[in-house]
Predict the 3D structure of the following.
Amino acid sequence: MASASSISLIVLVALAATAASAQLSPTFYDTSCPRALATIKSGVTAAVGSNPRMGASLLRLHFHDCFVNGCDASILLSGNEQNAIQNAGSLFGFGVIDNIKTQVEAICKQTVSCADILTVAARDSVVALGGPSWTVPLGRRDSTSATGDTRDLPGPDSSLSDLQAGFRKKNLDTVDMVALSGAHTIGQSQCLNFRTRIYGGDTNINAAYATSLKANCPQSGGDGNLAALDATTANAFDNAYYTNLLSQKGLLHSDQVLFNNATTDNTVRNFASSAAAFSSAFTTAMIKMGNILPLTGTQGQIRLSCSKVNS
């Protein structure tokens, strides 16, 4: 049984997280940098317009940032988290964020954090690919180190219970988890992440779909060969990811476990049948994820360059 002191500590941590997110406000830069949001949107729209995959890359950067020590732009610091096994060679978009930061610095010196730029860029990426918009609370500050535990990041072979436990640690419930998994309606994954699934490791995969994937993902070699996470509408942010799951056409093991005679089956069916239900749940979950342990007030710093701490 937990001691009174340990229970008190848990309550204090929860209260601190709530207080930090309460300090965030959509109007944070209205006076100090009124053109910040328009500048970020312009940079994202241009980047996604020239390479639609960049939308998924920026969304993934935000997710991988928030799940390790909170949404503090630690993922943007060179080395450390970027080199972890879950991230090495599979994170893109740093140049886009750096370019946007340079543009924002030109109009508002050391005012807008890299953490906020990344959070807004994730929202604008979804919008650029036809997805829903939402109001982003602002006022995060940037970390001065990148030493978080990347083991909190879910992997392509995660079980449903692993996913639920991992998201619960971040104060995200099962509906949030299923909705955020819908980010896989865009983007691509490497052969090494789904090879086992298509060569007999999983039985809950459409046979024709598995065969089609083998053409570009041999049993050996080709680890970095890519396949769309959503083969139906690869560059459109929609609810096709869930209809694919109903047909056992989830690319990753961790995708298909959401619809596999499981407690999440009805949520998947709901999102597959109603784009509005998915959009509503996704935007709610994105706001909750963006509120994971932000640095606020005098914590951290406002980096001048997103890839390194201020000297």
User: Anything to note?
Assistant: The radius of gyration is 19 Å. The longest helix spans residues 4-22. Residues 9-16 have pLDDT under 50 and may be disordered.
